[in-house]
Amino acid sequence: MHHLFGLVLAQKDLSRAGDLFSLEDAEIEGSLSEALEQIRIISSSADYQTNDNDQAVVEICITRITTAIRETASIEKHGKALVALWESCLEHNLKPSGKDEDTPHAKIASDIMSCILQNYNRPPVMALAVPVAVKFLQRGNKELCRNMSSYLSLAAIAKADLLADHTDTIVKSVLQGMKRLVCSRLRTMLEDRVLKGEGKQEDKLLGMDLQSSAETKGLVLVLHRWGSA
User: How far apart are the first and last CA of the chain?
Assistant: First the structure.
């Protein structure tokens, strides 16, 4: 790991964290995955949620890392470590406080989300990200869910197969009121195959015979009403 990254993370030195922005992206690119793993360890510590210094160090480091990943186009190289940190946020509270302030781990998840999911047109990255992304949909953070659903809609348009194994979770989220969650995409696919009666073939996304499923027909009507609201 680059010596400055190592120093800042090992000592959780907020006074030196800003110096990371004086480094060239190419100079630190090779250290990003290791730095992300160190951040995962710090953010998983028992006192992280109450330690303002550690939170500030992590926030600065994540900003520097995601900037470097974008500028060096190295998302596929560091995607695994980035997704691992993202997924670790699921182990912690993500629901906003009474003041509607995001929790420390919700902030991490949000900062990482855009860096990962802006690459919705890169199948290798989405193959890592989608299984984790759908887990955030039922964690009680409306802002995260709203943003996540927008990115998943783009991912579905780019490559619908990526969502094939996660339809149940997505449908449950829609039924719970998250009507923006790829609603138009699902509704269009279902309407084409059910309401327009285009043959009895097994749908590749839902994995069922749509023509024979009364439940699915009901879901189409629900999605239609919600999508038009």
Answer: 51
Give me the residue label for tokens 């120093």. Answer: 7
pLDDT tens digits for 59-87?
Answer: 999 999 999 999 999 999 999 999 999 99
Do residues 104 and 48 lie in contact, with contact meaning Cβ atoms separated by under 8 Å?
yes
Element (H, E) at 19: none
Prediction pTM value: 0.71
Distance in angstroms (rounded) separating the CA atoms of residues 136 and 105: 12
Torsion 51-53-56-61 (CA) sign: negative
Q: Helices 52-72 and 104-117: crossing angle, nearest 10°?
A: 0
| Rounded CA separation 26/3 (Å) | 14
If 0-12 CB within 10 Å is exposed, 13-18 middle and 19+ buried, where does residue 169 land? middle
